[in-house]
Write the C-alpha cells for this entry.
Amino acid sequence: MLALRSAAAIVPTAALAAFGALLLNEPSRPALSPVQSETLRKPIPPATCPITQPQSEPFVPPAPYPTKHSEATSFWLGSEKLWTLRPIDGLWYGLRSDSGYRDKVFWWRKGYDWRTENPPQLKVTGKRLDAPAPSLYLERANPAFIKIPAMLTGVDIPTVGCWEITGDYKGDKLTFVVWVVP
C-alpha cells in the first residue's frame, strides 16, 4: 500500500513540473546528435596551454613492444630511450582523490628488464605552467607486469590547469603537457 501512495505522489509532481514548464513558455530544445553532445561536454584547453601534440614523424615502438593503440584518440610519444602513450586531446581527467586528480602513466624503454632493475630508475616530476600550485604527488616507479615490461607511476596532480610532466630515466628525459580537468 505504501508503494502505491509513493507512486501516486510522484506522478502528480512530474505532471506539475511539465505543466510549469509550459506555463513559463520554455522553448523546446531540439535533440543533439551524439557528436554535438560530445562536443558540448568536452572541455577545451585554452590556447595558452601548449598541449603536447603527436610528433610530425610518428614514433613507433620497436619490436617486441606493443605498437597498437587507438589512432583516433592516442599517440606514442618519445623515442627508444623513453616513451609513453598520450591522448591526442591532451586532457587529464584523473580520478578525484584527496591529493588531486590521480592517474597512472606507463613508460617504456627499449631493453628495460624488471628482473634486474626493480624498482626502475625512473624519476617523474611536474609543474603547473599557468599559475602557482603545490607540487605533484608521485609514487615511486614500479615495474608493470605485462607481456613486455613497462614502468608505471601513479601521479596526483593537485589542481586543475596546465601541467608539464617529465620522466627521467637515467638521464634520458621525456616531457609532455596536459590540461587537467575536473
The longest helix spans residues 2-23. Residues 1-30, 35-39 have pLDDT under 50 and may be disordered.
